[in-house]
From TrEMBL:
Pfam families: ILEI. Residues 99-186 form the ILEI/PANDER domain. GO terms for cellular component: extracellular region. It is found in: Secreted. Belongs to the FAM3 family. PROSITE patterns: GG_LECTIN (PS52031). It comes from the Eukaryota. One of its GO terms (molecular function) is carbohydrate binding. This is FAM3C protein. The keyword Disulfide bond applies. Coiled coil: none annotated. The gene is Fam3c.
Length: 224
């Protein structure tokens, strides 16, 4: 009788061990399956995630070109933003923008930032802006964006100097128009990089201002 009990106990023990081991293996397989499935999903997500280009533009620039993206101000609330080669040169976050015309200068050969300034064309004086425009060196990339109002104090001399940088819209820039422009000192042709929206109470997105204008592109590197 004792031997029979021992055999039963051993059998129960072995059966219990077998069941536990089977359950454990199933759990292990399920966990491993879950891990592999997650890895596969993560890999798929990484492979399908769209690539990010400099300044967040929609496609990569070719060799010997500088990527840029810019936006005008939004009414008198959010300032403009200018980015070149993944370097945010001017923005509300950097706290270096202001009412009027915001200007960023970039070295046309290296893409390195040279200067940033804003000129109040509502309550300020156009004379310092004119002097600044005259001081820009040949081969410099010039990016401009309006905020609030960029036109009231502009005179013919200032408009002519901006036109010489490649702008075609500056002659028609009016009170509270939104405008972004990228040109260069010494440019021989009109710049293809310019956006202009007129202030029109019938079409304005904001009560007294038109919608924000945005622009992106690839600036050719200056060659010797």
């Amino acid at each position: 009788i004792g031997a029979a009990k021992l055999i039963v106990v051993v059998a129960i023990f072995l059966l219990t061990f077998y069941v536990i081991s089977q359950v454990f293996e199933i759990k292990m397989e399920a966990n491993l399956g879950h891990i592999f499935a997650r890895s596969a999903l993560d890999a798929a997500a990484r492979s399908t995630k769209p690539p990010r280009y400099k300044c967040g533009i929609s496609k990569a620039c070719p060799e010997k070109h500088f990527a840029f993206k810019m936006a005008s101000g939004a009414a008198n609330v959010v300032g403009p933003k200018i980015c070149v080669e993944d370097n945010v040169l001017m923005s509300a976050v950097k706290n270096n923008v202001g009412r009027g015309i915001n200007v960023a200068l970039v070295n046309g050969k290296t893409g390195e930032p040279l200067d940033t300034k804003f000129f109040d064309m509502w309550g300020g004086d156009v004379a310092p802006f004119i002097e600044f425009l005259k001081s820009i060196q040949d081969g410099t990339i010039v990016l401009m964006g309006t905020y609030d109002d960029g036109a009231t104090k502009l005179n013919d001399e200032a408009r002519k100097l901006i036109a010489e940088l490649g702008s075609t819209s500056i002659a028609n820039l009016g009170f509270r128009d939104n405008w972004v422009f990228c040109g260069g000192k010494g440019i021989k042709t009109k710049s293809p990089f310019e956006q202009h929206i007129k202030n029109n109470k019938d079409t304005n997105k904001y009560e007294g201002w038109p919608e924000v204008v945005e622009m992106e592109g690839c600036i050719p590197q200056k060659q010797d």
